[in-house]
Amino acid sequence: MRELIFQEDAGQRLDKYLQKYLNLAPKSFLYKMLRKKNIVLNGKKAEGSEKLKNGDVIRLYLSEETLEKFHKPRKADQYPLWPGLEIVYEDCQLLLVNKPAGMLSQKADPKDVSLNEYLIGYLLESGQMAPESLAGFTPGVCNRLDRNTSGLVIGAKTLAAAQEIGRLLKERRAGKYYLALVKGRVTRKERIRGWLTKDETKNQARISREPLENGAPIETAYEPLAANKEMTLLKVELVTGKTHQIRSHLAGIGHPLAGDRKYGDAAFNRYFRETYGLNSQFLHSWQIEFPVMEPPLEGVSQKTVTAKPPKLFQKILQAEKLSAGGK
C-alpha cells in the first residue's frame, strides 16, 4: 500500500491527479482500481471526479511491482533550459513569453521539445517548483500559436491560474491583437465574419462567407496601421480563435500574409524571401488586454501586455517605410 497526501493546488480532479502519478497506467486500469476500491480517497470509495483539497489522503492498495510498472517519476533533466527565453510578464501565478517563430507551443510528437518544456525547465531552474511536484499539477502554456507565428503565449504556474485563464479564453473576455503584413492596400477598419472548416489531411482551413456543413463561425477584425502601394501593416483582433483563422480569413478576402506558404501569394512571398530572407508568415501575437480579474489573477487585472516583433519583422517594416507598430 502507498499513501499519498495531496499538497498541490486545490480543485484538481482525483482522476487527473492519478493519471499524472501513475503516468504509465491506462485510464481503464485507474477506473477499474477505483471501482474495486484498490484506490480510495480519505478511506472511502471514489469515482475519480472528486475535487481534491490540501490534506486529502489517497491510498493505493497496489503491489510494489504494479507501482513500479506504472509510476515513472519525471526527471528535471527532461526539461531543458533555453537561454533565449523572453519573459514579458511574470508573477506568482502566470508568465507571458514572447515565442519565436519556428518553435512549437506544445509537443506534436513525444520526441518534440516545445515552449512548454522550456517553461517547466525555467521554473525548475529558478527554484519556483520542485521536481517531485510534477507528479501532481504540471505547469504549461494556456494558448497555442502556430509553429511559425511569433508572439505572446500565456503560461500558468498553478492549477487555479490555468483554470481561470481557460475560462477567460473560452468566454473571449481577453483582447488578443496581432500584427500582420498583408498584400495590397487596406484603407479602412473592417470586421469580417465567415465559416471555417478544416481539411485534416492537408492541415488547411477553408473559409466561406456562407454557412458550411460542420463549419465553425469565425470573426476577425482588423485596422490598417500603415501602408505603401504594395502592402499594408494590419492590427488584427482575433475575436474567435480557430486554427489558421487569421491566415486563411485574410487570404480569403484577397489580402494574404507575407511569407505564408500555405495560404499566401507565391510572387509576394518570393519578394520577401529573396529580399529579406523571410521564410515564415509575417504574423505576430502582439498584445493581450486583460479585463478586470479576481484573485488569484489580480496581478494582470486590466493590464495590457505587449511583445516586440522579431528583429526581422522590424527590419522589413523599416525598409518598406511602414510603422513598426509594436516597436
In short:
The protein is of the alpha+beta class. The protein is built from 8 helices and 15 strands. The N and C termini lie far apart (59 Å).
Give keywords.
single chain, four-stranded antiparallel sheet, alpha+beta, 327 residues, elongated
Task: Explain what this protein looks like in three dimensions.
Strands 5, 6, 7, 8, 9, 10, 11, 12, 13, 14 and 15 form an 11-stranded mixed sheet that branches. The longest helix has 12 residues, at about 160-170. By secondary structure, the protein is α+β, with helices and mostly antiparallel strands. The mean pLDDT is about 90. The protein has helices at about 15-20, 25-35, 65-70, 115-125, 160-170, 245-250, 265-275, 310-320; strands at about 1-5, 40, 45, 55-60, 85-90, 95-100, 140, 150-155, 175-185, 190-200, 205-210, 215-225, 230-240, 285-290, 305. The chain contains 8 helices and 15 strands. The chain is about 25% helix and about 25% strand.
